[in-house]
What does this fold into?
Amino acid sequence: MPVGRRQVLAAGSLTAAGIALGAGTAHAARSGEETKSLKQLYREAMREGGTLTVYAGGDTATQQDGNRAAFEKAFPGITLNIVVDYSKFHDARIDTQLATRTLVPDVVQLQTLQDFPRWKREGALLPYKPAGFARVHPAFKDPDGAWTGIFVDAFSTIYNVDMAGGTAPASARDLLAPRWKGKIVSTYPNDDDAVLYLYSLIVDKYGWEWLRRFVAQDVAWVRGTQEPADRVEAGSAAVALGTDGMLTPAAGMKTRFVVPKQDPFMAWAQRAAIFRHAKHPATAKLYLNWWLSKQTQSDFYMWSVRTDVQPHEGYRPIWEYHNAHLDGFEHFMADRGLVEHFRQQLTLYVGEVTGAPSPGWLGLHPGH
It folds into this structure.
């Protein structure tokens, strides 16, 4: 997430008032949701030792610093250790740790949606329903509480307002215009399954000829979705395809996120789960309850997973955008044969992925 992945939450989530939020209601008790307040969960987390390790999907080591700062400020004395890596490396790392009984993280939050049902079947996840679970959109949670979405991310086009010259690209076809040649940056779609899915939607709409012409625009290909956003914000690129941006840009920001009216884009809820054998289950529960609180959901820079949190001004709930293909991404991720087939076809146009991974090489047990 471009700017957002560095500063995930707005200042409102840092307030101590957030600690008082709770769900001690009869409804929560009947539904199996957590009934303890954040303040009660905080006390339990401190008694447990006050530390938590999260494996988070992302692109750079510092991308979750805003999330860490917000959580630690809301709950003084808690140490949140977030290890950021590509989801496709974290899931393989977790499988290896589970197989060798050397599990490091307490919580995992990834875009590899296909892993969570499998981990549930294998008994690796702790069934748990944080407060507010009933308000999470049904598409974004496991009915038994094995996992829940904690925020909605979306990939489309972003552009620099100064470089767009008053005419922003409204569709993938617009990116073929001569004015954008040499000014486009994109994450390698054959390196990131979410970006790959976005490209598959565009190819389905416009055909392989679109991809041939797009590649001929002298696109700068990079690893991870952070660098395209950074380049657009800095003005070293005018447009990026396959990344996200703040729906309500902060003052002075040059980047704008495009929600297409007709073209496809893609969105998903980043899934989070607690491991059954987590070393810090009380702190893990505090973390998920904090994420699903109305305050934190309201502060997130894209869309909330909750049905009772209003989207940013000028936007509708993400499930009302039929061209966001919420269901499609989950099905795409589950069909690994389809994913790999399309990846190899696309590589013939884009070329092999080159360069070191943007988070670095983290090894088998980072955060240990």
About this structure: The two ends are 25 Å apart (CA to CA).
